Amino acid sequence: MVEVARGKVRRVGWTSVTPGAHVATTAPELRDALRAWHLVLPTTAAFTHLTAAALRGWWLPAPVPRPVFVSVSRQDRHPQRRGLQVDRCGAPATELSGGLPLTGAAETLLACARDLDLLDLVPMADSALRSGHLDLVELSELAAGRRPGTRMLRRVLPLVDARSESPWESVMRVLHGAAGIRVEPQHVVRDAAGGFVARADLWLVGTRRLHEYDGEVHRDLDTHRSDLDRDRRLVEAGWQRCGYTAGEVLRKGGSIIASADAVLGRGWDPERLTAWRALVRASLYGPDGRTRARRRWTTEC
């Protein structure tokens, strides 16, 4: 474990993460940097928002410069430091991660919901549920309240699905939902004899079409060979697989929707694409979401 220290440290190889808190490395990892931060925060402080989400290993939205997020009691003196964003709602620490206090999973998502939008939050919630960190009953009870962020949580709740196996699969599922396309995550395809053929990211319900996210891992030679063999098995079983990259999902959603429309026998409705583009714009993947975050996260990072 990397050493951390409070006060003035003038030794080679140490990094100041904030005045009065230092880490014994020139490139501190998140957990070590937060251990140093913890030295100068009030005793009631708990890491929350995207900071707590990152510590838990949840799927995070698009990377943008962001501060360290903490929740403190209303009775505590307001810590004002560069790179720190303070939530004075007083959500208490309910668990420890490597000795660091965190707000509970539902409270963490609520804090994120004050600043982020649907497309940012659904993958996070999927991963929180998938990892066993999140209790949907607790989240539903929290969302039923009137605290800031609850309205967004109420939009997120019906879309959460623990079956998702990657953040971009979650994003693709939201795309299909925005376009009114019913999909089933992690659908098992079997041949005429009932034998296993493949398990696919998203099945367009009522069709023999599969939509999947193809990440960088598929560029590996062995993985590529395995993918080709899998594709042949799907063709032989009478299924069609369409793979999409992250860039295509974000910037060419119209072509994905149009392709689904064709196999579903639906006519083109531009409102479906409009709904998807609005979600992208409002998220950290889009200009509106990034602008909103910069304004709310006023502390310099």
Short note summarizing the structure:
This protein is of the alpha+beta class and 301 residues long.
Architecture blueprint of SSEs:
Layout: E1 4-6, E2 15-18, E3 21-23, H1 30-38, E4 46-47, H2 49-56, E5 68-71, E6 84-87, E7 93-97, E8 100-103, H3 105-113, H4 118-130, H5 136-143, H6 150-156, H7 167-178, E9 183-190, E10 196-204, E11 209-213, H8 221-236, E12 240-244, H9 246-251, H10 253-264, H11 270-282, H12 287-296
Parallel strand pairs: 5-6, 11-12
Antiparallel strand pairs: 1-3, 2-3, 4-5, 7-8, 9-10, 10-11
Helix pairs in contact: 2-3, 3-4, 3-5, 4-6, 4-7, 5-6
Termini gap: 25 Å
Give the H and E element order.
EEEHEHEEEEHHHHHEEEHEHHHH
**Which strand order spans the largest sheet, edge to edge or round the barrel?**
9-10-11-12
Number of helices: 12
* Beta strand count: 12
CATH superfamily of the domain at 167-268: VSR Endonuclease
Characterize the largest beta sheet: strand count, sense, and whether it forms a barrel.
4 strands, mixed
Rounded radius of gyration (Å): 22 Å
- Helix/sheet category: alpha+beta
The CATH class assignment of the domain at 167-268 is Alpha Beta
Q: Which architecture of the domain at 167-268 does the CATH hierarchy give at level 2?
A: 3-Layer(aba) Sandwich
Approximate strand percentage:
15-25%
CATH topology of the domain at 167-268: Endonuclease, Chain A
Helix content: 40-55%
Mean pLDDT: 91
Q: What is the approximate shape?
A: elongated
Spans where pLDDT lies below 50 across 5 or more residues: none
Describe, in plain words, how this protein is organized in 3D.
The longest helix is centred in the last third of the chain and has 16 residues, at 221-236. Among the domains are: 1-40, no CATH class; 167-268, Endonuclease, Chain A. The model has no long low-confidence stretch (mean pLDDT 91). α3 (105-113) packs antiparallel against α4 and α4 crosses α7 (167-178). The protein has helices spanning 30-38, 49-56, 105-113, 118-130, 136-143, 150-156, 167-178, 221-236, 246-251, 253-264, 270-282, 287-296, and strands at 4-6, 15-18, 21-23, 46-47, 68-71, 84-87, 93-97, 100-103, 183-190, 196-204, 209-213, 240-244. A hairpin with a 2-residue loop joins β2 (15-18) and β3. It is built from 12 helices and 12 strands. With 301 residues, it is α+β, with helices and mostly antiparallel strands. The strands form 4 sheets. A 4-stranded mixed sheet has the order 9-10-11-12. Strands 1-3-2 form a 3-stranded antiparallel sheet, with helices on one face. It is elongated and about 70 Å long.
